[in-house]
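Structural biology now treats backbone shape like a language. To illustrate, our science desk offers a sequence and the tokens encoding its fold:
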Amino acid sequence: MKTANITALIILIGLFIVLYILLIPPTDRGELLEVKSGEDTAIQECIFSCNKATIDLSNGPCLWENNIENYVCDVAHSPRQDIDDDPSNQCHSYREGVANHFIEVDKNCNLIRSV
């Protein structure tokens, strides 16, 4: 009789574990979800914006400023040219210190660098 009770208990515990895994969302179980950093989000948003841009990208425009807090998205040449380092060709909020980070993509929307 003891063996039957132990077997039933093991089955019951197994059933509770399966139900727990199936019915309770991962966040409620305390599992960590992958959270993208601000930089990862800014890179993705910059590349997305570049791909959707309807303006000429060959002159290296600033695509957006502070869409993602503290970041700007700028188009530059690849390989970089001296003109890319000219402050007048950089996003205003980065030059003014409002944004402290920038994402640079080339005119084909490939990531150059993130600073």
